[in-house]
Design goal:
Belongs to the RuBisCO activase family. The protein is α/β, with parallel strands linked by helices. The chain has helices at residues 7-21, 43-54, 73-92, 103-107, 118-132, 165-168, 182-192, 200-209, 215-224, 227-237, 242-246, 262-282, 284-296, 299-303, 346-357, 369-372, 388-401, and strands spanning 32-36, 57-61, 96-100, 153-157, 173-177, 334-335, 341-342, 361-367, 378-383, 406-413, 418-426. The protein has a 5-stranded parallel β-sheet, with helices on both faces. Strands 9-8-10-11 form a 4-stranded antiparallel β-sheet. The chain has a two-stranded antiparallel ribbon with strand order 6-7.
Length: 430
């Protein structure tokens, strides 16, 4: 299979690699080439095609290797891989590069919630040091006086604006924004479907039909065309026998060439686009987080009138909390107003009645002290009924079952499907 290499990509990458192996008098050559752009446009794959064409050996580093529980390990690993590339040049007499994929995912600050660790600082400092002293890259605890060959560094990512600014400055990093144009996409997609006998006119129509899609979309589309045959194979051998047919089997299943008719490709592509839109429209995580923030806002307390009952002063061993200062559920029984005795304090009963009177359901969650720090709450009960007796029974059962854990009470608006109250009513005794 012959894959297409975009001319702009080939020219930029080949010039950067070659220039770093030349001795140009009085010219400061950036060691790092940063290739950035939208997701799924084939940045890493185009790099691999260029490496194969030029006979360059890439030494890879992934974003997942740029963090460690041990401070300094990722920075040392980068230096080690750089020296590994240098050893390859010495022993094989061929060009080598250090390739770091998705650098912004491993060392960038995406938003204010991104944790900035010691390793992140050391990674930035290490890359800057290598860019400034490419022939003198030492490992901690050792010193090698022999200069290293200069190793070009190629990094890919989506948004280099998240990286440490001194690292991406001119002189250290040469930037290349990659966004394939129509001709590039037609060439790349033609390479993807080359074994399938699709004409250039059909390729152009397919690309124009899904003009807003990334290059990876068309590779995924070709893969999905095989789904019908694979499902037919699964149904034929039986769901319970698939493993024996595809793992360590002497006879692997074979599949005939599927239907790559243009209309079929477009139909499957539209299904993929529909799934994309569904994902974009749902945004469940944002919806859940928004509901949580709304429930924690001060206006929530104003929407539920505070009970007029004066809270009972708390003993030192108290473990039940409400909006009022800490107090303990009384050992003597109270009446819930319906003739049923309960161990729930009067002010907590007042809050329950206030929530129920507005038509809200009651939810309860619990968490131990260790998971409390990470906010990993587990559901204790969700009481859909408005019957006060059942609500009190569920609350007492939750408090009793998890008597040495945090317990949180919240109201649920069934119409808007969001929380209208959230308060910790019990904390473990210390």
């Amino acid at each position: 299979m012959t894959y297409y290499i975009a001319p702009r990509f080939l020219h930029k990458l080949s010039v950067h690699i070659t220039k770093n192996f030349l001795d140009l008098p009085g010219v400061r050559v950036p060691l790092i080439l940063g290739i950035h752009g939208h997701k799924g446009e084939g940045k890493s794959f185009q790099c691999e095609l260029v490496f194969d064409l030029m006979g360059v050996e890439p030494i890879h580093v992934s974003a997942g290797e740029l963090e460690s529980p041990d401070a300094g390990d990722p920075a040392r690993m980068i230096r080690l891989r750089y020296r590994e590339a240098a050893d390859y040049i010495r022993t094989h007499g061929k060009m080598a590069v250090l390739m770091i994929n998705d650098l912004d995912a491993g060392a960038g600050r995406v938003d204010g919630a991104t944790q900035y660790t010691v390793n992140t600082q050391l990674i930035n400092a290490t890359l800057m040091n290598i860019a400034d002293n490419p022939t003198n890259v030492q490992l901690p605890g050792s010193y090698d006086s022999e200069p290293l060959p200069r190793i070009p560094v190629i990094v890919t990512g989506n948004d280099f604006g998240t990286l440490y600014a001194p690292l991406v400055r001119d002189g250290r990093m040469d930037k290349f924004y990659w966004q394939p144009n129509r001709e590039d996409k037609i060439g790349i997609v033609s390479g993807i479907f080359e074994p399938d006998g699709i004409s250039k006119a059909e390729i152009e129509e397919l690309v124009d039909r899904f003009a807003k899609q990334s290059v990876d979309f068309f590779g995924a589309l070709r893969s999905q065309i095989y789904d019908e045959q694979i499902l037919s194979f699964i149904q034929k051998v039986g769901f319970n026998r698939v493993g024996s047919q595809v793992v360590n089997s002497k006879e692997k299943p074979t599949f005939h060439k599927p239907d790559f008719d243009l209309s079929h490709l477009i139909a499957q592509g539209e299904l993929m686009v529909k799934e994309q839109r569904q994902l974009e429209e749902m945004r469940l995580a944002s919806r859940y987080n928004r509901a949580l923030h709304e429930s924690q806002a001060p206006r929530v307390e104003a929407s539920i009138p505070a009970p007029t009952v004066t809270p009972t002063p708390a003993p030192k061993s108290s473990n039940v909390y409400t909006h009022q200062p800490v107090h303990k559920t009384e050992n003597h029984q109270h009446s819930n107003g319906n003739g049923t005795a309960t161990n729930i304090s009067e002010d907590l009963l007042g809050q329950l009645r206030s929530i129920l009177s507005q038509g809200y359901s009651i939810g309860l969650e619990h968490v131990d002290a260790r998971r409390f720090r990470t906010g990993s709450w587990a559901s204790c009960a969700t009481v859909q009924t408005q019957d006060e007796k059942e609500v009190i029974a569920a609350l007492e059962a939750c408090l009793s079952e998890h008597n040495n854990e945090y317990v949180r009470l919240f109201g649920i608006d069934p119409g808007a499907k969001r929380r209208v109250l959230e308060t910790i009513i019990q904390r473990p005794e210390h």
